[in-house]
Every structure is written in structure tokens, then in C-alpha cells.
Queue: 2 jobs
Job 1
Amino acid sequence: MKGKPSTNLAMARISWALSERSRQVLSDFTRNGRAQVGGLLSLTFVLVAVFAPLIAPYAANFSDFDEILQNPSSEFPLGTDELGRDQLSRVILATRVSMQAGVMATLVAIVVAIPLGLLAGYHGGWLDRVIMRLVDVALAFPFLIMAVLMAAVFGPSLLNATFAIGLSQVPYVVRILRAETLSIAQEEYVASARISGVSTARILSRHVLPNLMNTVVVQATIIIPSAIIAEAILSFLGLGVQPPTPSWGVMLSSSQGLIIQAPWLVWAPGLAIAAATISFNLFGDALRDVLDPKMGRR
Amino acid sequence: MLRFGLRRLSESLVALFLSSLVVFAAAQAMPGDAAQTIAGFEGADPATLQAIRDRYGLDAPVHVQYIRWIALALQGDLGNSLRTDASVLGLIAQTLPITIQLAVMSLAFATFIGLPLGAIAAYYRGRWPDYVANIFATLGLAVPNFWLGLMLILIVAVTLDWLPASGYVPPSDSITGNLERMILPTVVLGTGFSAAIMRQLRSTMIEALGSDYVRTARAKGLTEISVVIRHAMRNSLVAVVTVMGLQLGLLISGAVVTEQIFVLPGFGRLIVDAVFNRDYPVITGVVLVVASAYLLINLIIDLLYRVLDPRVRLEQGEA
């Protein structure tokens, strides 16, 4: 510990401790090798997604019918598909859909789960029982089954797939946030706030929620990579992104029928999914180590 | 125990009832006029449509329709496929064994790979076997299983020509033909689980290896292998079983994808095809069966815990 004269004002002490803590987190994080690699790779994927049209050598749906199913060459580094489209460009542009689904699904999961977890954990009683029963019901629909049901009702699209992915994560996040809220609610500062007549809404927003944020961030880092895979799976099955929009899952699904004539088409989209997932997993693992030392590596 | 069992059972029944409401609501929300769909796509005249509405009670209030639907479902009547007119229950009975075979083989494969890897990684923690096992687990969890499937088809089936690429042969026709075609799907579905099992066993075993009872076992002069397997590993298995229980949903989702890749006529293919064919009775029937099965299996797992692990009994008794 760096020496720091104790001040008389408790507030000053707390704010110092807080900033010390966040500085500590930041320096732990930047010194962690896995964090550096994971962070850098994840950032690369996000940047590729943002600047995809500038990076890709061809437009997503530019077809050259004289160049159908070409082997990889200097002109088309990853070859061309059945419509003469440049595979490299499509792999690059598909990053957009993937990152978008990963981030949006995570936001959906968290935005829905936070109020439910807070209420169940803090209010307790009948509200807790109702929410937890609903969580049980939601768990009875595995993610793909929920996605199938949503596709049947609302039609298959990226938006519906994103919601299905996000909603399927809600029960897990609610359970964790509820447990965390339960333990925070027993802290003395919450009790003293309650005694001094602070309203429930204010206790939740000022005292409980800020202390939940670490857990929320940790959960988000777990959801993002699985949402990326989930989007690819749904698009592969035809329940997500619809052609001709480039998506890794859609590209793999069309490459399956061409696996004998054009085996090169199978490689790139799959490697891209695996690389994106590993990057965000590394990043998340490292962030978890720093934010939540209790949890350690699982 | 009995009281807990009854409470848990009633909770499951409530969850089942709510799930059936969800499925029913989804069925109501599916696009298209039900009478029109039942009549088929040949333009039915209004009189026929009205006859269908009367016959199926489609004009009845929603709650009456729900009660009628659930009463039929409880008797095993989930309606008929709009495309083939086959009974939905019959279709499920026909496809489910294939999915169950795939799931059981995959779990066996995952255990066979995951347990030794996890034990070795824990024992050699921080040394090269641990790193190798961790790389395997990281890849196993990150590589999407459908891509693994395509790569295996490309390498094992197309290039090396060792195994058939896809399709299904019932075991009654040929056991070897059946197994030949199930090997690749098993590997595809099982790999992710073996990684999950490995990770879980590694972390609980590291804890166990540092515990007092393991030190005592060593001090007693037991052989190292007996300490590791009979003492450290055995006590870590409860956590592994928990993880496998939690992964049930993933197993179901994974089976849907795997069947799609390898053209296995299991229930996953049934439901995906039904979505594309807008075969709503099949969709709702399969979803209802999956949800019920899921709740039932979880109920069994919960009850088993209390039988297997006295500590759980205590914890829940206090709560």
C-alpha cells in the first residue's frame, strides 16, 4: 500500500480509496498479458467492423460471374463464392453483423435483467417468487428453441435473432444479480440509508446498482462471445441474417453444399468466428481476474 | 425430503403451466389464419372455413381454446402436421430416439475426453500438460461446433474418405452403418462439453488436491494414483454433474445444429424444417415437449442432489 496520511473526513478517504481502486484495476489490467492480447484483438474486431467498407477490397455483393468459385489468388486472396463474390471482402464485412449482434444481444440481456434482479433481490417476498418462477419458465426454453419460436412468430431476421439471443441469457443474469443484490442489501450502508428514510428507488440506484456494476460487466464479457457464436449458429440455420447480407453463419451454410468443389470457402468464416470468440473470451477472462479477484479463473 | 419433493414438484407444475401458456400464446401469434392454414393452400370457400372454425372451435374465446388445446395435449394429441398430416406426437416419437442416441453418445464422448484431461491438468497445474489441456479447452469452447462439423466432413469424410459425410442408418438395418454415421456428429456435439467438463473438473480438483483429506490420504501412505482418483477426483465429480445438468439446454441447442449439418432426421431437424415450412402444429408440439422434458429432467436432478449430497439437504433446509 502506498502511504497516504489519513484524513479526518471519511468522505475524502472513501473517494481516495475508490480512485485508488480504479487506478489499481486499470494498472492490473494493462499489466496483464492476456488482457493486452485479448483487448487488442477485440479492439481490432470492433475497428474492422466499423471500417469494414473501407478495408474490404470489393463491395459485399459485387458479383463477377466470370470469376465463380475461383481458388484463392492474388486478386481474390480467399477465392470467390458461387456468385463470383470476393470471399475476403465478405468475411470482413460480415464482422459488422457479428459485432452488432454480440453487443446488442448483450445490451438486451443486461437491460432486461438488471431491474428484475434488483427487484427480486431487494424487494424479496412475493415479487421475488414471481420473478424467479418466470426465470424457471424462461430456462425451460433452450436458446435455440426460443429462437425457433421467435422466428416462427416474427419471421427470421437479424433483429429477432438478436432479441432471442439476448432474452435467452436473461434468466442466468437475473439469478446472478439477484444473489449479488441479496448480499449487498445486507450491508450496513444500505441499512443506514434505509433508516435515514432514503427512498427505495434512491437506495437501489445510488447504493445497490453501483455496487452491482462489476458483476454486470463480468456478465457482459461472458455473454458477448457466446452471442457472437449464437448469431453465427442462427444465421447458419437460416433463422438469423438473411442472404445476401454477409454473415459468417450464412457463408458457412452456403459453403456446406460446395464443400467438394470449393473447400476453401469453409475455412475463413469459421476461423473468423473462432478468432472473434477467443479474443473476447481472453478479454473477458482478464477483465474478470481484475474486477473480481474472488472468482479467479474458472 | 417428502415435503421438499412435493414443494419442488408443485413448482415444476407451475412452471410447466406457464410454459404451456407461452407456447400457446406463440401459437396464437403465429402469422396467418388458422382455419385457412388447416384448409390447406387450395382456396377454401367461406363455408368450408366456417366449418373448420366450428370443428376446431376457433371462434371460441381464447381461454376456452387454451383449455381445449392443453386437454388434448395431456392426452397426447398435439395435432397433425399441416404438410404431411402425420400426428405430431408420432413425428416426435419417430425422431426423438435419434436425438437421444446422439446426445448420449456425445455425453459419453465428452466424459471420456474431459475427465482425464481435467484430472491431468489439475495434477500438473502450471506445467505443460496443464497448458496443453487449457489450449484444448479454449479451442473447444471457442470453435463453433457447426464449423467443426464442416471441417470434419471436409477432412475426414471428403479428403480422407474414412467415414460417410452425412445421413442416417437405423441401427435395426445395420449397427456398423449406424455407428459409422454417428461418429462425426458425436465428436461435433461432444467437443464443447468435454471442454466444459475439463475446466470444471480442473478447478474443483485443484481445490481438492490442496485439501486436508488429500493430505491425510497421502500421509496414510496411499499410492499417488489412488489419492488422485479415489479421493480428489471422486469428490470433484459432484460439481461436474452439476455443470452437465446446467448444460442441458446447450445440449438440446447443439443437437439441433449438429443434426442440420449431418442431415440426421432427429427432432432438431424436425423443428427447423417446420419453421421453414410454416408447419405450426409441429413447432408448438415440439417446443411444448422440449420445455416439459427440460423441467422434468431438472426436477429429477434437483431431487437426486438431495439424495446424493447431504450438504445440499442442509443448505436448502436452512433457506
Job 2
Amino acid sequence: MKVGDVIQFSTKALSGYTVRTLLMILAMAIGVASVILLTSLGEGARRYVTNEFRSLGTYILIVLPGRSETTGGPPPLLGETPRDLTLEDALFLTRNSVIRRVAPITVGSAAVSWKHRDREVTILGSTDALFDIRQLSMARGRFLPAGDPARGSAVCVLGYKLKNELFGNQSPLGEWVRIGDRRFRIIGVLAKKGQSLGLDMGDVAIVPVASAQALFNTSGLFRVLVQANGRDAVPKAKKTILSTIRKRHEGEDDVTVITQDALLSTFDRILLAMTLSVAGIAAISLSVAGILIMNVMLIAVSQRTTEVGLLRAIGAPGGQILRLFLAESAILSLIGAVFGIILAFLGTWGISRAFPVFPITVPVWALGAAVLVALLTGLIFGVLPARRAARLDPVQALSRR
Amino acid sequence: MIRLTGIERTFPVGDETVHALNNVNFTVRKGEYVAIMGPSGSGKSTLLNIIGLLDRPDKGVYTLEDLDITELTDDQQASVRRNKIGFVFQFFHLVPRLSAAENVELPMILAGVDPVERKPRVQAALSSLGLSDRAKHRPDQLSGGQRQRVAIARATIMQPDVILADEPTGNLDRTSGIEVIQILENLHNNGITLIMVTHDPDLGNRANRRVRLVDGRIVTDTGNS
């Protein structure tokens, strides 16, 4: 029997029972569509997070004091830092050619007060480099002035939310606020930017790093943000930072450098795993469709018993009957998959209309996988009915009217 | 051509086993016209099914054109059925969703005959049985006589050596029954071996040779030589 004839024969058999065939196609289509839609959602989430990371700034390395490594024995309650990461360490890094900018950061919490209002917020101590590294933008005024970072001047920049809470609609520029036990003159207000790596940039006050160190009475830094000269320079920068700090810390490897890429790829992996598990859940609906196909094919076999008997009588071997019924399941699954893909694209279109910010796209591999899985389900669940048909006794099959 | 020796076939019915065929020895030469007769339950149909390779004997040897059938695999048996044997059934057994022409075409599709060659052969077969204008009709749009003629066209399309007819007129009125018998006898006159199961003595008497079965044994055989 020729392949074309098998397809034609099976297609005719399917079109002979319209309602049943349409129901099976619908079940398969829903299964395939849910697989594609859910993977697309997962993929969209991955892209969304990746984009958020990009907005953090480009080619960034984060230097943390202390060494994170696995050692035996009970873990220390706090990261043990035998030596602080100092402002001098940070400034020393700027001398390297692969490093473009360095922003030392001190973090503390203090009350910011103006007249009778005061708010407890996060105080960031940094330099003018932070502006470019974190890609901030100003609503009013200007950012911290360039100058010797070791000398703290009494100026500050407020986050958008903090400014609103303290000043309402008034312009705060030139006003003096009290932060902790010191007074600072407001020179700028940050534009609304939203969250960035868990830190709400609307609810902070930024002061020169030396002022912050004085304020919190510390000589160590919370971390240092380093911007490399380009994407290719990132690994080199990492090496340079480690060796520079080691030299300055008497051969002691006591900082940890995290690259943005490493962070990104970690999140990437997590989200990919999430996408796959969601796709796995969706695959359950596909297997439901498969069971439906099996059921309906079993009914089809018992309804077409005499036909099977006849085919045997006019010279079809058992294997041929098996192939005919398997071809029917396969054709059903494929048609179902095609409709499922159409359904999925309609769904993603709808989602992208409803949530324009969410970057939902159908990944090509999901399409291929969905069709493949649909075909496999059809074939696997088609085997049982097809075998039953192939094993029918022709005499008994024909004795039924 | 067909040689059955010591054929037995038993069916379990409840606790007992029923001998549908009991030590049957039977030979049919090429081009014969044989009527197998007997009361219902005498094993007529079982005998025909065994000759047609739809059923396997429990004991005995069946050779068709010097080929030991009982030793063939499923695929080989299917090939013998496809190329050497044509079936005509009491209930026609046409595929209801296919047109008359498609039903006739079916054996050639299974045999893998080229589509270009199939169409003219189907048309020739249908027109020789006066069914040209019914080619596109489905079985439920045809009369009983027309259905049986489509079935005969299907049985002969692969140009078999033997036609096995199981009560071919059993479901037809008198006139279309006669029509169908005449067509089958025509085939016999053109050299095909015709073996027909019937319980109608009038039909049986038309055959050159009559075999009578009772309780799974051949009791009379007018042409046994």
C-alpha cells in the first residue's frame, strides 16, 4: 500500500465521522495551545527579568567585602570580613585601563527631616559616578558634583518619593535638611525610575560617600560598583579587581566580585527551569487529549469491526491494519496541533494587547516541541486501539452485520 | 488446485467443543463450479472460510496450487487472499463511507497498484456489470442487487483464480438474486473457479457439482473423483 493511499484512506475514514473527529481535534488543539501559551508566558517572564537587569546599567561588576566560599565547620553568622573594603581601595581601581567608572557605595539608615516632617529612609553614600553607572536621571537640579570623593561636602540628592513626602509640590532645591545629626543642602531630585534590584530609588537620599562615612562613623564600604570598558572587558576587569585588592590587602583574597552576566545567567537558568516545568504541566493537558484519542479510536475500531474484517478478507495483513489506524491518530494529532498553534498565536496576541509591557513571544522551539509531543501522544495512545483492530479475527468480524 | 485433507475445526462452546468440520477431505479442480450445501450449522461457512484463508484448521493439510497454506505467515496469507481469492458475502460488506468506485478500488489500493492504472480498471469493472452510472453513489444509495454487483466487481478486480461466495443471494429478492447468480456463472464460464455456499436447492442445482455437509462431515459429493 502506498503512503499517499494510506493518508487518503485515513483522511476519508476521519471525515466520515465528523463530530467525533472535530471533538478530538479540539481536545488536541487545546492541549497544544496550552503548551505553547504557557511556555510563551515563561519565556516572556524570562525576557522581562533580563530587560530589568539590563536597566541596572551595562557591564557592571559588583565588589563585595568578604569572601563567600564553602568551608567546613559551622558557618559564621555574619560574613566575616577581616579587612574592610575602603574608599581608597575603590579609588585605586579607577587607575586601571579596563575600568571606566567606579562608584563606591555606603549604605545606612537615618532620619531625614525638614521643618516638622521627618522620614526614616535609606541613605546612600556615593560619588558622581553612580549617576552614569545606574543610569539615573534627574527630575530637578543636578546630581552630586564631581570632585575629590574623599572630601565630603554637605549636599544631598533626594529620591522622588521622599521629596514628595517632605516637600509636597514645593521646590526643595537650595533647602537644608537634617540627616541624622548633620545638615545637608538639597541640590537635586531624582526622576521617577522605580525599583532597581530591590532598592526603591524613590525612597533614598544620596550624599557624598565621605559624608556618609562620617555620618555612620565607618571607614568600610557596603560595596563598590565598577563599570568595565565594554562587554569583553568584564572578565579582565574582574581579574584586575581581584589582583588589585589582593595586593592592597597584603595577599588576602577578601572580596567577592559578582558580574552582571553571572547574575543574569543565574536568573536565566532559574526562569528557564520555571518555563520548562510550566510546559510540563501543560503537557498533562496534552496527555488528556491523548487519552481522549485512545478512547475514541477504540470506539472507532469496534464500530468498524466489519470493515476491518473486510480489509483482512480482501488481502490486508494485520500490520497494514495497524498502520492504517495509527495513520488516523497521527493525522488527527497533526491537524489538532495546527489548530492549537493558531489558537496559541491568538492567545499571545490577546495577552500582548492586554499587557503591552510584558514582552510575550512564542519561542520557535516551543512550536516544534508542541507539534512533536502532539504527534507522539497521538501515536502512543493510538497503538492500543490499532493493535486491537489488527488482532481482530476476520471470521468473527465479518459475521457481524 | 484446492486440496483439503483431514481438515478438522473445533470451536469451544461453553464446556463442550463443537466439531464444525470433522475429517473433511475435499478437492476442487481449476475452473469448477461447486455448490456447498447443507442445513445451518453444518459447517458450510467454516469450510469456505478455511478455503479463503480467513480461518485456520486445527488439524489437516490445505494446499492451494501446491502451496501448503497452513505454513504461511500472516503477510503471505494476506498476499494469497489479495491475489488469488475473491470474496462475495451475504451482507455485501461494502465500506459505507466510500463510493461504489472507491469500494471496487480498495483491493488495488491495498495491493499498492499505481493510481494511474487503478481508475481505468475500476471503470471497466463497473461498466461490465452495468454500474457505470452508479460509480459515485455510496452503498446506502444503491439497491441490494446493485450493492452485490459492486461487491462482485470488488472481488474480481484483482483477477483472482477463485471466487468464494457465501450465500450471495441470501439477502436479495428473487430477480436480483438471479441476476447476481448469472453474473457469477458468467465469471465461471470465463474460467474462474466458483465455490458457493447456499442452502437454496434451486441455486445448488445449477452448479456442476454439489457437496452436502451435515454436522461437519461431507455426506454427498456429486463430483468426487
